Amino acid sequence: AKCCAGGTADDAKKLDAAIEKNDIKSVIRLLSSTQPIAEFEGPKFHRWAEDPKTVGTLAATHLAIVTSHADGFPLNATKVQDDIRKAGAIPPLVNFLKSKEKDRQQCAIVALAELTRDSAENSKAAGSAGGIGALMKHKDSPIREARDEIANIVRNIFMEDDDYRDQFVEKGGVSFFIKQFNEAAGDSEPEAQLDAILNLTDLLKDGAGEIKKDIVDQFMKAGVDVKLQGMEDTDDNELKEAIEDLRDMLWHRIFVP
Asked: What SS3 state is found at 37?
């Protein structure tokens, strides 16, 4: 099926042809296109992101879909992620975050979430393209799912380099993660709670494995430990273990000079 059905411009036709041939490089070259496309009929492309309104945003959406569909096959997923990075997709996707167009911003978040998941090289590429600063401009998005994805992407990035961790903290990352955790703590969805707790845990340790006492102090002052204590009755073993690990880290750092 043609993804650009209804498009009449050359860019729309080029994207159709690139998708049919699985020509990733040509898809990426079209990320810069602002050629409008016809409004889609039927179900939305994504559960919370706006549908693409231009060829460029549709190209970004295609990259996210390709990566997502490969996710069930780890070796294939890694190759797809690597191929997309090597073809130069990550810097323009980071630039999408600086756009005034909502569909461009949101499709970039979706694509970067897929591309940086379990990929150190793609996370480094996003970091060196200015991903931390660009993503943190959207930390107050009114869409919770967008904020959750942003949290996961910045975590993927700062786990690769302490300089990115420092950038994240300087741009309000501690309070952003605490807010995300507070939202998840009142949620009945264990997956959201687990992501939020793992993000806090990963922020606490630097690349050398040292626990950052200044961040521990901010967590304690914000009542993170009290909320964790109230979540310990969960039946989810993975979540329970993550809660215990984070509480151990908080209290160990308090009592160890």
From this structure: coil
